[in-house]
Amino acid sequence: MADIKQYVKAAEEKMTFAIEYLDEQLSHIRAGKANPKILDCVRVMYYGAPVPLTNVATVTVPDARTIMITPWEKKIIKDIEKGIMDSEVGITPENNGEVIRLGIPPLTEERRRLLAKQSKQEAETAKISIRNARRDAIEQLKKSIKTDGTPEDVEKDAEAEVQKVHDKYIKKVDELYAAKEKEIMTV
């Protein structure tokens, strides 16, 4: 009986990881507002090794359209600028010798639609992961009838529980996507 609960719990853990991954991916999609997470992919050469931007500078958001980067050492400001230019951020940094400012441009309608489409794709990927976790759990439950002698009615109840958990996580994915789409499409 304990094995049955293990299968359900393992499936729920996988589904939780899918939600966390989706949340992380959606946070990297630029929605026209300043978000320091868009700089997570930026690497800066620091004493000959590429390091994350957050290891060599403080990243702040003074207002909704600006990201401000304050380097811990003034001499690496050019390296930070180069790292931003070489990354996929797509924003030209402004350097005043002390800090680097990134002005987040307003999104065009076409760009908004592309970002919404990208968000939808990320949500679909998360749904696929959740469905796979459900499928794996149900397969393990069916195997437990043959190998462990689990009664069929117990297995069916556990399948129903896995389905309930699945539905809960699919709903969370839909909520996360709807919130991100609203954020992107709001001018």
TrEMBL record:
GO molecular-function terms, A-Z: ribosomal large subunit binding
GO cellular component: cytoplasm
Pfam family, one: RRF
Domain of life of the organism encoding this protein: Bacteria
Listed GO biological process terms: translational termination
InterPro entries assigned to the protein according to its UniProt record, in alphabetical order: Ribosome_recyc_fac, Ribosome_recyc_fac_dom, RRF_sf
Keywords of this entry: Cytoplasm, Protein biosynthesis
Boundaries of every Ribosome recycling factor domain copy: 23-185
Principal subcellular localisation of the protein: cytoplasm
Compartmental location: Cytoplasm
Function: Responsible for the release of ribosomes from messenger RNA at the termination of protein biosynthesis. May increase the efficiency of translation by recycling ribosomes from one round of translation to another.
Family of this protein: Belongs to the RRF family.
Entry protein name: Ribosome-recycling factor
